[in-house]
Amino acid sequence: MIKSILSKIFAAIVRKKIDRWANAPLATQEKVFQSLIAQAKDTAFGRDHRFVEIKTYADFVERVPIRDYEAFRLYIDRVVEGEKDVLWKGKPLYFAKTSGTTSGAKYIPISKASMPYHIQAARDAILCYIHETQKADFVNGKMIFLQGSPILAEKNGIKTGRLSGIVAHYVPAYLQRNRMPSYKTNCIDDWETKVEAIVTETFSQNMTLISGIPSWVLMYFERLYNRSGIKVGKLFPNFSLFIYGGVNYEPYRQQFEHLIGRKVDSIELYPASEGFFAYQDSQTEKGMLLLLNAGIFYEFVEADTFFSSSPKRVPLQEVQLGVNYALIISTNAGLWGYNIGDTVQFTSLKPYRIVVTGRIKHFISAFGEHVIAKEVEEAMRAGQEATGARIAEFTVAPQVNPVSGELPYHEWFVEFEQKPTDMNAFAEIIDKALQAQNMYYYDLIQGKVLQRLKITEVPEGGFAAYMKSEGKLGGQNKMQRLANDRTLVEKLLN
After folding, report:
1. May I ask the CATH class of domain 373-493?
2. Which of 148, 359, 460, 472 is buried deepest, with most CB atoms within 10 A?
3. What's the half-sphere exposure (Cβ side, CA atoms, 13 Å) at 466?
């Protein structure tokens, strides 16, 4: 009781602080920008790019090109080798190790200056929820954070591991008593074994808050349901808050509500190894609040022009609603003009709120349609709502070489928890919803360049088996929503 009262008081104080910088966005970003440049001017990167001469954003654009990890690698390799003062003052506190590049693992530096923001942002998201809803009873129950192993390796004296594993070491003392799973269980490397152990540990506990990437939380809920035979909402009657990030919740919503048996409030987060960028600060407003006061300076490039010879970089004050932007960041961990690979759209400019729309390299444009993740997820949501279907997972790929005499099409690979009664109607609804969002796709359908999409069923457990074969089962790993070729789906079907 005391805990929930105190959390409401604390939430009101924090919300006021957030509003101060959110209501002065441009001044806040300018302050961050000047601070970053001043602190890094004597680093190797700062000297190479003449930071001492940078006074304005235009100066920065002139001297610092946009780079992805591979283009940044020469600098990061120096940091990994143990050299100090390369990208940021001193040496990093940690390396967040992630997979996914053409040349193996990525080592993303986390500095002493950047680390606190990873913790603060997650805390503030919960406090915004408490302040807005005045619901705080969940702080008295057990909380679970489905995350990677907290066991860290070392790379030239710098601790290295998954971001979620690093963050696990910073859970505040007042939450430690309530937090699950146990450290021993959290250290289990094999995801399926870990989930079973978590089910055993939490089965009879008073779970009130559950957090993780939706697809992996779904696996946890399915195991709970299979073991108990009752809905998660009944098994955990006080479960009232679901916190998620990494992927869009909407494609999974119906399956979640089916397994829980009732509606539960949710908070969306946008964390990454490179920084914590945004969180949902309101249950009534669309999008997540862009964190302008967290040691990160933001730039944006219209996604449609990103791969042109000279894409235009846009500062915060020039962004527009509803435009699909590649997100570019400079941070107090030493990333500069860095393309993280995500695309976002603004849902509000007062304050600045965003939704994540996909990956800059993940789209389908085999026929000039440039369909993005947000569009296929919205179309799938429409299909489920109209038919009562529930899905476990899905991905989309083009079929450029159909059987003789057929028009090409988009092929949707879907693992169903509950099939629609009429698969043809389901495909029709999805297709119409996609046409409504993407005029290029509409034109291709109407012009008889493409035929309507086709659904291919994936057997139960097919996506989990694929992720396991790629070494990406569980933790922070996410299923790629769509691709411009069939490399992924060919592996999926084998």
Report:
1. alpha beta
2. 148
3. 23
Tokens standing for residue 187 = 């250290």
Q: What is the CA radius of gyration of the chain?
A: 23
Query: CATH classification of 1-361, choosing from 3.10.450, 1.10.10, 3.40.50, 1.10.3470?
Result: 3.40.50
pLDDT tens for each residue of 152-199: 999 999 999 888 889 888 876 666 678 899 889 988 888 888 889 999
> What gap in Å lies between CA 153 and CA 160, rounded to an integer?
5
DSSP annotation string for 77-131:
HHHHTT-SSSSSSS--SEEEEEEEETTEEEEEEE-TTTHHHHHHHHHHHHHHHHH
Compute the distance between CA of residue 152 and CA of residue 100 in angstroms, rounded to an integer.
Answer: 19
158-161 vs 153-155, strand pairing mode: antiparallel
- The domain segmentation of the chain, as residue ranges, is 1-361, 373-493
Cα–Cα distance for residue pair 218/259, rounded to 1 Å: 8
Residue 31 corresponds to which tokens in the numbers above?
A: 């302050």
DSSP output for 337-405 = SEEEEEEEEEEEETTEEEEEEEETTB-B-TTS--B-HHHHHHHHHHHHHHH--EEEEEEEEEESS-STT
